[in-house]
Amino acid sequence: MAKDVFECMKDSQSIRHFKSEPIPESVLTRILEAACWAPSAGNLQPWYFYVVKNQQLKDKIFEVSFEQEQIKQAPVLIVVLSDPARSNERYHERGAQLYCLQDTAAATQNMLLAAEALDIGSCWIGAFDEVKVQTLLEAPPRLRAVAMLAIGYSDEKERQTKERLRVAEVAKIIE
């Protein structure tokens, strides 16, 4: 039974230590489907996902990602790529420079929430050499690597309560 979405938002946190246990294909598929349900400008869905299970490739990506251990340790690394040209066709420069990034961020967030709902640990990774990752994946030059998710069963010893700003600190209601 999956958790409520509000519980997932509250409970989710970056997991950096993973068990070696593989993720069942049915669970991985559900996480990727959640990404595909994300909203996107004009419903263009300018995203593509490289699902990396190959340890040698994860080791190479680790080297061009500031040696973040969770990349090597997680059983699955999902590299999220955007297609700026797809967004540019309808929305021109704003589509290529902004909308495609917003759209892929929404897809990435959906994967994080789906993983949490399915008791899969995850960590959003943004620090990496974009060009080198794209080269290692042999991704078409049209695509741009914008995020990575390390996912797997958590091997964290204890979960930390995360502090958040109150709504009153970050929102202004204009009537």
From TrEMBL:
Looking at the record's lineage, which domain of life comes first? Bacteria
Q: Where is the Nitroreductase domain?
A: 68-153
User: Locate the Putative nitroreductase TM1586 domain: which residues?
Assistant: 10-59
Note whether Oxidoreductase occurs among the keywords: yes
Q: Which UniProt keywords apply?
A: Flavoprotein, FMN, Oxidoreductase
- Per UniProt, what is one GO molecular function of this protein? oxidoreductase activity
Q: What cofactor(s) does the depicted protein rely on?
A: FMN
Q: Which family does it belong to?
A: Belongs to the nitroreductase family.
Which protein are we looking at?
Answer: NADH dehydrogenase
**What organism is the protein native to?**
Anaerosporomusa subterranea
Lineage of source species? Bacteria, Bacillati, Bacillota, Negativicutes, Acetonemataceae
